[in-house]
């Protein structure tokens, strides 16, 4: 019986985002953390930091301790103002390089436009 822990899933996701950085399209991952502590959180953040992730305390939390996505986007836009795209993803979703290929294609189609682009994706379960 193979047992996969949530920490292993998150570590794979950290590796996955780093693998998307092709040089042409630069991926700059930011991990927003909350006040959680423990060995798993320490291992995950140390591993991500070694792979070049920015580890940041979530800027603002709800009364239930959940980060506000709007504030995370604002922080990312201030810290990385020259990025063409900003994205939010849960820590258990993996992407192929097709994501980068799609963003590059959208950029080519919209070349010369100086407004923000909004793209939406939907998660599909493959059971």
Fold and architecture overview:
The chain has one domain. With 127 residues, the protein is mainly alpha-helical. The chain is built from 4 helices and 2 strands, in the order H-E-H-E-H-H. It has a two-stranded parallel sheet with strand order 1-2. Helix 1 (6-19) packs parallel to helix 2. The protein is globular and about 45 Å long. Helix content is 39%, strand content 6%.
Outline type: globular
The helix fraction, in percent, is 25-40%
Number of distinct helices: 4
Q: What is the radius of gyration computed over CA atoms, rounded to a whole number of angstroms?
A: 16 Å
The overall pLDDT, averaged over residues, is: 83
Can you count the beta strands? 2
- N/C terminus separation: 19 Å
Q: Report the uncertain regions.
A: none
| Quaternary assembly | single chain
Total tally of structural domains: 1
Helix and strand content put the structural class at: mainly alpha
Share in β-strands: 5-15%
How are the strands ordered across the major sheet? 1-2
Largest sheet: 2 strands, parallel
SSE order, one letter for each helix or strand = HEHEHH
Task: Write the topology of this structure.
Elements: H1 6-19, E1 30-33, H2 39-50, E2 54-57, H3 69-79, H4 98-109
Briefly say what this structure is:
The protein has 127 residues and is mainly alpha-helical. The protein contains four helices and two strands. Helix 1 (6-19) packs parallel to helix 2 (39-50).
């Amino acid at each position: 019986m193979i047992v996969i822990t949530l920490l292993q899933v998150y570590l794979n996701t950290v590796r996955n985002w780093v693998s998307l950085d092709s040089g042409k399209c630069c991926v700059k991952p930011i991990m927003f953390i909350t006040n959680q502590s423990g060995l798993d959180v320490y291992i995950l953040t140390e591993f991500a930091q070694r792979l070049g992730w920015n580890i940041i305390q979530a800027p603002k939390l709800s009364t239930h301790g959940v980060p506000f996505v709007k504030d995370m986007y604002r922080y990312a836009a201030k810290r990385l103002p020259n990025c063409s795209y900003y994205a939010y993803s849960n820590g258990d979703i993996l992407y192929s390089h097709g994501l980068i290929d799609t963003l590059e294609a959208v950029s080519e189609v919209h070349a010369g436009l100086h407004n923000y682009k909004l793209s939406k994706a939907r998660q599909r379960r493959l059971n």
